[in-house]
Amino acid sequence: MKIKDQFRFIRQNIKKNRVRTSMTILATAMGCAFLIVLASVGYGLQETVVKDTLEEQVVTKIDVYGHESEGNYRPLSMEDVEYLESVEGVKAVTRRNQLRQIPTYSIDEYDAEAMAYSTHFPSEVESGLELSGGRLPENINEVVVGYHFVKHLVKDMDNADIYDEESGEIKSEYLYQDDLIGKTMDMKVRKDVEGEEIYETMSLTIVGVLEKPTREWMQDSNVYISQEIYAKVEEFTGTPGGELGIDPENINEVDTSNTFDDVKVYATNLEAVQGVSDELEEKNYAIYSVVSEMKQINMLFTIAKAGLILVGTIAIIIASIGIYNTMTMAVTERAPDIGIMKAIGANPKTIKQIFLLESSYIGIIGAIVGTIVAYLISLLVNLGLPIIIEMAFQDELPEGLQFSAIPLTLVLIAVGICLFVTILSGMRPAKRATQIDVLKAMRREI
Q1: pTM for this one?
Q2: What are the ABC3 transporter permease C-terminal domain coordinates in residue numbering (predicted)?
């Protein structure tokens, strides 16, 4: 019997029992849809978490915290920076030192308090630093400020009436409204001498404003000063980084001018991050990169997705019971047909193949229907569930949160499992069909 004739025979038999076959296909479709939708939650949340991680952090960035030597970690020096720059795959090495006190900044009658960082701007430019306006510093008294620095410039800072009672935010009439670029501001730092506070004022010119951070909740109100200004603050206070609360006379004679608080390595591309990270770890550098975090996140989600797929497979196995019953009844009902085929010399393998094809046919149709239903459910979940949660809990969900995602790999896995289970369910009835006695089949005695 040709394969074309086998399919014609299968379709004819299915038409005779449309209701029973349709219910079996429906059960299979429900099981397949359940598997896909359940596992899609893991895929959707993974996609959201990975996307947020990539947006919040520079994927080619590697934080270097120090160098381990004989069980102790030492801060990074210029020699370390030069070595890091020589590593293959490294695009830039940025280095910063944080001022260890919070200066006060004044522009006309407006004041602000913000952290200050000594910054090596050439390496920052190589790493991809961008400005929303202005230019980079060219002289020692020129600075760049963070995007949100202007929101901290307040008139009459000590006045309690500057805050709006309803929103709790500073009233607009007290905020600085002019353009910052080109403005001269005074940075006031202090030192403590025998319980007395002594202040020093340095005049700085704002020449640029950094680009807005990628995430809405991120704030950048820092002031990025030159290394020369940082050194002047140290000279004034007599302490490393201008730190307060320590006696300059009791400080160990350690040269801190050649060390850095914050060193970041930027790889040329994402593919180079792992190679650079491995080499730095071999050299006993304490590092962190988003790639290592992504590995842990992906591992956790892989385990979660495997568990969800396993649970979803149980639904398909339950549906396979219906397929087994349908095929068993089909063998019983078609006993005369089987007897005729065997009487005219049909090969038992052909008879077995017919019933396996029929169970596969049911499985494929169920998988296709289930996949379509799963996509519709996924769409409804992503559109409707956030609205329901926000209405029920009165809390706004993070922007871009995706509850369900159905990649092609998930569809292939689900269809593969569904097809395997349905074929397995038809094996026993198909084998029974080959064992039917011709005479009994003709007399309908099975």
Answers
A1: 0.61
A2: 310-431
